[in-house]
Design a protein that fits this description.
single chain; about 100 residues; mainly alpha; Arc Repressor Mutant, subunit A; 6 helices; elongated
């Protein structure tokens, strides 16, 4: 994944995206470079418009995670809130309250 970030950084800086450049960026960030992953990334990006790839990725729909156990009934939710609310004691105001 780090090599993808490196490629995006190089693209943003209008630099050539090749194996050597990606390795330099990763080395500067003190990240171990996976040469096979870098080769696959460079081959996959060859001839592609990165701006179009970014635009199509940001337009992809994102699915919301389902709620665990389903949503409780609205009436039950209100009852729990009322039970959990303890009576508030009056707190002292001013600087004296900070040092209690």
């Amino acid at each position: 994944m780090e090599s993808v970030y490196a490629a995006l950084l190089l693209h943003k800086a209008d630099k050539t995206i090749d194996e050597a450049s990606i390795e330099k960026v990763l080395k500067a960030a003190a990240v171990k470079a996976d040469k096979n992953q870098i080769k696959a990334l460079v081959a996959g990006l060859d001839g592609k418009d990165i701006d179009e790839l970014i635009a199509s990725a940001s337009a992809a729909p994102v699915m919301a995670a389902p709620a665990a156990g389903g949503a409780p009934a609205a009436g039950k939710k209100k009852e729990k809130k009322k039970e959990k609310e303890p009576e508030k004691e009056e707190e002292p105001a001013g600087l004296g309250a900070l040092f209690g």
